[in-house]
Amino acid sequence: MATRLAVVGGGRMGEALVGGLLARRWAEPAEVSIVEARAGRRDELEARFPGVTVVEAPPRAEGVVVAVKPGDVGAACGEIAAAGADRVLSIAAGVPLATLEAALGPLPVVRAMPNTPALVGAGAAAIAAGTRAGEDDLVWAEQVLGAVGDVVRVPEALLDAVTGLSGSGPAYVFLIAEALIDAGVVVGLPHDVSRRLALQTLLGAARLLTETGDDPQHLRAGVTSPGGTTAAGLRVLEAGRLRSVLVEAVAAATERSRELGRGA
Asked: How far apart are CA 109 and CA 106, in angstroms?
């Protein structure tokens, strides 16, 4: 009998997906397999997920998630095709649908670009359908990735832009967090106090944006009194081209994603 879901690749993202799906009771442990080549890592995953089958080679599966490094995708897809599967979701960075479909044959394929906050159940992912993937396949992919965050649908041509924004975006936020912590120390706060305040400020601002549904401009105006402290700080940020620099960063990451997809 085919396993319900096989996750090929037991790295951090594969582990996060399995953890999220089990926590949401999308599947029972006995219905899930993790495919991992490294024996030591297999032992870790068996201890982390009692009841989940952890194996070295892909089993026959109703659905398969490809969660290996880009250089290992060809070999993994060959093994998946040989074992048999009903549908495949790839979260391998930069590997286009044409390459996946060539390796997997007639299987329906959905390609996704998730990001690292999926590790704490707060990911942002975009999915794109292959030529053989239908609505049922997209809904299935949304359910799998929805276990660890939010999911949107886009044409494959936009996945490079998704990479530049949400794929690389956590690193931009981490850099801003570093800068805010350092700034707090510069103006006299102890490092531990500055770190605590900076991180809670980022978390609180993000929750205000997502939970109120208000536009960023409206929320920013709500904390900016004419001639006040926030206005003074924002004036420096605008003079330093923060807005333009972030746009340039997303554009640069998007272009680099395109280059990598072309093998550059």
From this structure: 9
Contact 16, 39 (CB under 8 A): no
Report the C-alpha gap between 60 and 1 in whole angstroms.
Answer: 8
Structure tokens at 3: 């396993």
Domains of the chain: 3-156 (3.40.50.720), 169-261 (1.10.3730.10)
Quote the pTM value: 0.91
Evaluate whether 88 touches 104 at the Cβ level (below 8 Å). Answer: yes
- Partners of 53 in beta bridges: 33
- Gap between the Cα atoms of 159 and 87, Å rounded: 20
Per residue in 179-235, pLDDT tens? 999 999 999 999 999 999 999 999 999 999 999 999 999 999 999 999 999 999 999
How confident is the model over 105-130, as a mean pLDDT? 95
Cα separation, 240 vs 143, whole angstroms: 42
CA 100, 75, 116, 45 torsion-angle sign: positive
Beta-carbon count within 10 A of 22 CB: 18
Would you say 18 and 7 are in contact if contact means Cβ atoms under 8 Å apart? yes
The pLDDT tens digits of the residues spanning 45-98 come to 999 999 999 999 999 999 999 999 988 999 999 999 999 999 999 999 889 999
Q: Using DSSP bridges, classify how beta strands 53-55 and 61-66 pair: parallel, antiparallel or unpaired.
A: unpaired
Considering only CA atoms, which of 12, 83, 15 is closest in space to residue 54?
15
